[in-house]
Amino acid sequence: MSVKERDPLTGHQTTGHEWNGITELNTRVPRAVWFFIIVTHIWALVYWVLMPAWPLVNTYTRGLLGIDQQEQVEERVAAADATRGIWADQIAALPLDKIRDDTLLMAHVERTAPALFGDNCAACHGSRAKGGPGYPSLVDDAWLWGGDDETILETLRVGINSPHPDTRYAEMLAFGRDGMLDRDQIRVVADYVQSLAGLDSGASPERLEEGAALFADNCSSCHGEDGAGMQDLGAPNLTDNYWIYGGSDEALFETIYGGRQGWMPAWENRLTGAQRKLLAIYITSLADGGPQ
Q1: How confident is the model at residue 290 (pLDDT cuts 50, 70, 90)?
Q2: Are residues 146 and 276 in the same domain?
Q3: CA distances (Å), 96 to each of 31, 138, 145, 282, 286, in order?
Q4: Which of 33, 79, 122, 145 would you call most buried, defined as having the most Cβ atoms within 10 angstroms of its Cβ?
């Protein structure tokens, strides 16, 4: 079929292609398509002239309008910092109870503290602050060093077993590894510790009595005679059934045999005083049943 031929029905020229009697027409591009193509090119040319567009060797074309988005972002960040500085200075200067009484300041705390916690604390304590193996929960009101405002602020400032010169220091001895207790004695003590927390270890009264004696000789100096812990030493309460490393037979044996030494970074040089106060208020709100 010749390209010059026209389709008798539509009057369009053909392309010369035919498949089983089906002829391909050489139809024109619709005018609407040409219109939008032309408008798009004109818009691109205008944009190139008015806005930053073309890269050069060491710079780029600035455009007639002189718009610089980097400068705009920097100006917005500076404005946000200035606005934040007003209420951040107030938070830095006030005690936590006064901040809690200030509705406007608490609005800033509620907007800012969750993100601050997520960026700095959630990696260990979890996004919902419920902790995990080796990382204490912050929502159960079982505190190693104390849950009052000043204690939490100090823990945030200096950390635990951190390089900070004022760090809180706590370590559980490795009673098995260092030969202070044999494996059978460790199992006996573990049964007694489970009984303190109200767990049924299945141990006989005689075994629990033996465990109590071993506990008094080896553990009570830190955990107390009743096992309720000592916050001055960071020694956990063993009677509340809240466990950092687990309360199973295996977990307790591993803890007693090999010891434990938790670690928390010191935030004094990484977060401002105002930011640490934001975190302290947020953490205490979690322990009081606040947003999680």
Answers
A1: low
A2: yes
A3: 70, 18, 18, 11, 15
A4: 145
